[in-house]
Amino acid sequence: MQIVRTIFWVLLFVGLMTFSIFNWNPVEVSIWSGFVLETRVPALVIVSFLLGMIPTWLLHRGTKWRLERRIKQLENATRAASVTQPVSPPPGTQPANPVDPARPTPAPITNPDTGAKPIP
What we know:
It is rod-shaped, with a radius of gyration of 40 Å. With 120 residues, the protein is mainly α. It has helices at 2-22, 41-82, and strands at 26-32, 35-40. The longest helix has 42 residues, at 41-82.
């Protein structure tokens, strides 16, 4: 990816230099009435480009910073949730088979028709 970025900037620089060589003419820019700025065309183009690029670049950096913070926050939450903790039953519930030593176990129920005991 770094090579693509480098090629892009080199091509942009070569294009800007070519434009500057062929358009090295002075121009007058009237900013306010009575305030006239005399400059060359390439300087005007470069300054205009930078003035248009700076707000977009600042917006990009701010969004990237905010999303990186959000990603780190979610990663930390996932890491904290993945730690295994013993699961205890919710308060007010009892286990499925409570064992109470003070209470005797009931006798098995027999079938009144046959008198047979159920299979354990």
